[in-house]
């Protein structure tokens, strides 16, 4: 059966590829982004199945208005795809307080708020699927990308817990964790740290070179990536995590090995910290 999608960040990158793919397969979609003209081009030719809306995901009133318009148009939402976001680069010390908060507002708070705001209706219909786009950088931290890492690590924790909380209501929740894909991520859309500190010059130069040389040359194909996402949504059993890209899997496997090695060094001392006779905490990760 056809589905109703609500997609943020639908004017470019993964969001645009996803919007075009779901409309091409016959589903309906609320397409949202700050650039309305780009959305109208994607929506053209799809008639009543596409609704293009200007949306600033960091603004509560804008989110509420877009959700209301989507529900008024289609009656319900089957899939919320939180795709909107942006990268950032520079040494952590070089970012201003305003930049730190702006990154968290866009990459974490907006997706968390939209997820929360659709849940009453999803619980009432006892179905639905929330997709939160993070990154391999939501699992593995890189020097020069720490602020971006922080925003995506936060969304990872929020989404994994949400998955367990709403599963009893028939609602599915999935993290999408891409590696390097050929989107506008490594373009001028990325936020650069405001300050320049001489001690970080080698790190900054390396990041500048990466963003200048990798933009448009990433190995990942967004069209192929979103097809995997759609197939996953259509499947009977959706995972908590969907990783995309050979590079992402390799980085994750390396991080697991490194963390296991690191933790093992002090494990005996770390475990030997209990109060004699105290009961073990009954809380377990699922």
UniProtKB/TrEMBL annotation:
The keyword Nucleotide-binding does not apply. It comes from Cupriavidus numazuensis. This is Ketoreductase domain-containing protein. Signal peptide: none annotated. Pfam families: adh_short. SMART domains: PKS_KR (SM00822). InterPro entries: KR_dom, NAD(P)-bd_dom_sf, Sc_DH/Rdtase_CS, SDR_fam, SDR_oxidoreductase. The lineage of its organism: Bacteria, Pseudomonadati, Pseudomonadota, Betaproteobacteria, Burkholderiales. PANTHER family: SHORT CHAIN DEHYDROGENASE, SHORT-CHAIN DEHYDROGENASE_REDUCTASE FAMILY PROTEIN. Belongs to the short-chain dehydrogenases/reductases (SDR) family.
